[in-house]
Backbone:
């Protein structure tokens, strides 16, 4: 398997594995106290993990302005430092937040807000451009999104971003952005338990990259049993869109049963369960770039180690579909 992939029509080359920077933002919350992060985090360990990922060939890092209410972008920018030009940085906008209280504070889908949000992200990241700028409001009105897409084209013309994408699980919405000349990718959920054939078909038709969030199903495919979770972890009070964690007391037994049924196939070839889950994504489409989260050097090493193992075979993909009855 090639260890690099191209983000669609942009020609931007990235490592076949990206790193998602949601967790390193640390704790933040909704206005109702709903946890929106992954619990407490050690910034110095986050920096060490990013450096280790770079050393292991990871060149694609995905964050968002709201992760940790700006903290994730700041940590990523500090960690990259002088190596900024060696990597591809993706971030997102659309969610409002208060950095002092680390609280989400609504949304803004207006074209005018795009530039203000980008300016703030550039400052936190310590850079003069973002490689992939992603609309973070998954269910935004398609008509408004078309206006936002046109605003992104202006930012491309000014050299402030290289390409843009919509983070959405709706192929019809993603197709609105795909009409823009510099639309580069779609970010969407994809893992062995949650396939996305409609979005992968769109990526093929429109020549877009497929950036895959949730590749380890929010930890269910990471190889650790999910028991009770700390209070600051979003999975402890899962919102409606977060599947697999039931009432928040731990993993949903129905989901863990499916993971157990797949374990032998995914751990073939000396892979860990997480490495097998990533191998499925790479085999699913040559356009996919999974972005598992991380909070430690050990997690960075395990995820990056999947690159050496390569993708699953067509026969293994068929066996997985048979096991899952799809």
Residues:
């Amino acid at each position: 398997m090639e260890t690099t992939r191209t983000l669609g029509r942009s020609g931007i080359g990235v490592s076949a594995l990206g790193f998602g920077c949601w967790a390193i933002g640390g704790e933040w919350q909704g206005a109702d106290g709903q946890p929106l992060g992954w619990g407490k985090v050690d910034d110095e360990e986050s920096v060490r993990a990013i450096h280790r990922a770079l050393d292991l060939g990871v060149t694609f890092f995905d964050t968002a302005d709201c992760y940790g209410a700006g903290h994730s972008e700041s940590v990523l920018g500090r960690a990259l430092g002088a190596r900024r030009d060696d990597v591809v940085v993706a971030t997102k906008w659309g969610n409002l937040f208060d950095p002092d209280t680390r609280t989400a504070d609504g949304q803004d889908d207006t074209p005018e807000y795009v530039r203000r949000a980008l300016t703030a992200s550039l400052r936190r990241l310590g850079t003069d451009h973002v490689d992939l700028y992603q609309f973070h409001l998954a269910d935004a009105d398609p008509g408004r999104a078309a206006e936002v897409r046109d605003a992104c084209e202006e930012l491309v013309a000014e050299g402030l971003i290289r390409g843009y994408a919509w983070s959405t699980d709706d192929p019809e919405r993603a197709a609105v952005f795909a009409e823009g000349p510099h639309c580069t990718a779609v970010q969407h959920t994809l893992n062995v338990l949650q396939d996305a054939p409609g979005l992968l078909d769109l990526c093929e038709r429109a020549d877009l990259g497929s950036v895959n969030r949730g590749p380890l199903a929010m930890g269910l495919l990471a190889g650790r049993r999910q028991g009770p979770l700390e209070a600051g972890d979003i999975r402890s009070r899962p919102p409606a869109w977060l599947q697999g964690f039931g009432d928040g007391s731990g993993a949903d037994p129905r989901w863990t049963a499916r993971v157990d049924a797949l374990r032998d196939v995914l751990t073939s070839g000396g892979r860990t369960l997480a490495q097998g889950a990533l191998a499925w994504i790479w085999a699913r489409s040559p356009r996919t770039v999974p972005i598992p989260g991380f909070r430690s050097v050990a997690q960075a090493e395990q995820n990056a180690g999947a690159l050496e193992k390569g993708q699953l075979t067509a026969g293994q993909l068929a066996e997985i579909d048979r096991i899952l009855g799809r």
Observations:
- The chain has ten helices and twelve strands.
